[in-house]
Design goal:
This protein is an alpha+beta fold. It contains five helices and four strands; from the N terminus they run E-E-E-H-E-H-H-H-H. The N and C termini lie far apart (55 Å). This is Transposase (putative) gypsy type domain-containing protein. It holds the Pfam family Transposase_28.
Length: 153
């Protein structure tokens, strides 16, 4: 059985997940679980105030509330998201919410064109980089088909 614990805004560990702690209250967690229909069978629990996001406890994994309310993902996660995370060998907790929203945007864009999200196409536009314990997802190389938008010269 998979078990979750939830993290929201963290304090302070920008470059080091071992210094990132939850500031979510039990009441906020309960509201979040209800609002996003998180199955109780996943046993969502709140970490203690001194429990860092990484390394996480055996049998649990951290989930930022921003993954659901900012990046618009739901449990269970899409196969496309899981494929991207597995390919790049990163854990969900290592990708910031902006990176997760980019994966979501790519997936939605593919569906808008009646296409399945393709990992090779995703890799053409995006690449993971390492920044401390984080794996941000900046845009990749410039596409000849979809050039990056540039401001006025």
């Amino acid at each position: 059985m998979c078990v979750l614990f939830f993290i929201t805004i963290m304090d302070p560990g920008k470059d080091n997940l071992a210094e990132s702690f939850s500031v979510l209250t039990q009441r906020q967690l309960d509201k979040f679980v209800q609002e996003y229909n998180i199955p109780f069978g996943l046993n969502p629990v709140l970490p203690s105030k001194n429990e860092a996001i990484y390394p996480f406890r055996h049998g649990k994994f951290p989930l930022y509330t921003c993954v659901c309310n900012f990046a618009n993902y739901r449990v269970p996660f899409s196969k496309s998201l899981v494929r991207v995370l597995r390919y790049f060998r990163v854990h969900l907790c290592q990708v910031n919410p902006f990176g997760i929203s980019r994966i979501n945007h790519f997936e939605i864009s593919c569906r808008a064109f009646d296409q399945r999200p393709d990992l090779d196409v995703f890799r053409y536009f995006y690449e993971f980089i390492t920044a401390g314990d984080w794996s941000p997802l900046p845009t990749g190389r410039e596409s000849p088909v979809l050039p990056r938008m540039k401001g006025p010269a």
